[in-house]
Write a structure and sequence with these properties.
single chain, Jelly Rolls, Arc Repressor Mutant, subunit A, four-stranded antiparallel sheet, 10 helices, elongated, cNMP-bd_dom_sf, cNMP-bd_dom, RmlC-like_jellyroll
């Protein structure tokens, strides 16, 4: 379903306003760094409360002000995305003056678990991953997504903090619409409510399906299911670090499974990663395919 996603080429002359100089933008702003920063603040003996609240302030400032995010102010680019994804069949045209087109670099957070959202994020294109972090810092990847998809519905209606983080895997684009500009209009708009309901129905369908595989399938079956989901005759499993987080398998155990698949002739090791060598045996191992 994500094959429909295509790139809108942005000319070099586009006016982009950035919150900080590009040289200061980090290549990776990890959720583990945030946990480490807060843990440092909470464990300090001297002026513990002062240090903790300072650390908390830094994290809040970076996340809630989207310190590294860029806003694209070129109206032609805005209209190109809006037309391509038929945005104003979902949102009323009256919302256009209140919307921003935002661009995020690779490994940036669009929003972070535990914080209050103040608007809708309509993810247009660019691969992202949805992460949930436990109190001890362990992460699980709930889903990979390429868009288009809307985020913020539960927070719009319930006012709860975000239950998961959204992190980019490549340059990504979102429309942003603040709640205080649209709340009265959208909660009564039938086209928007229909789209939001359809969006969450699809999310529930995918989540329930994938959760069942992870709960009921042994580890080898999960790995086989994931490989079949990729449905590729070319090289697969090039970037291994995120896959076990999605499958609910320890990283070392995941590598042992891959090694056993190679020994059994199911996979072939390549310079870049792994390639499926025996699809029939993969299908026998897999109980079902993941929905990505």
């Amino acid at each position: 379903m994500y094959a429909m996603v295509a790139k809108v080429v942005i000319p070099a002359t586009v006016s982009v306003r950035t919150s900080v100089p590009a040289a200061l933008s980090p290549k990776r702003f990890s959720s583990r760094f945030i946990v480490t920063l807060l843990d440092f603040g909470s464990s300090c003996v001297f002026s513990k409360s002062i240090v903790y609240f300072f650390c908390r302030f830094v994290v809040t400032f970076v996340i809630e002000t989207e310190f590294f995010m860029k806003i694209i102010h070129n109206p032609r680019i805005f209209d190109s995305f809006a037309e391509k994804y038929d945005i104003f069949s979902i949102f009323p045209v009256s919302m256009k003056p209140h919307m921003n087109l935002k661009m995020y670099d690779k490994n940036e957070f669009i929003f972070l678990q535990g914080y209050l959202l103040d608007g809708f994020y309509f993810h247009l294109e660019g691969n992202i991953k949805i992460l949930h972090m436990l109190d001890d810092g362990d992460e699980v990847i709930l889903r990979f997504s390429g868009g288009p998809r809307i985020y913020g519905g539960a927070e719009f209606f319930l006012g709860y903090p975000v239950s998961a983080s959204l992190k980019t895997e490549e340059t990504s684009y979102c429309f942003y619409l603040p709640f205080h500009k649209c709340r009265d209009t959208l909660r009564r708009d039938p086209d928007f409510l229909f789209y939001l309901g359809k969006n969450y129905a699809e999310v529930m369908h995918v989540s329930n399906h994938n959760w069942s595989i992870n709960q009921l399938s042994p580890h080898k079956s999960r790995v086989a299911s994931y490989i079949l989901t990729l449905d590729s005759q070319e090289e697969i499993l090039k970037d291994l670090k995120d896959i076990p987080l999605f499958l609910g398998i320890g990283y070392r155990h995941f590598l042992r499974i891959l090694s056993s698949f190679v020994e059994e002739g199911i996979l072939e090791k390549t310079e870049q990663g792994y390639r499926a060598a025996d699809f029939s045996r993969l299908k026998k191992l897999a109980k079902d395919r993941y929905l990505i």
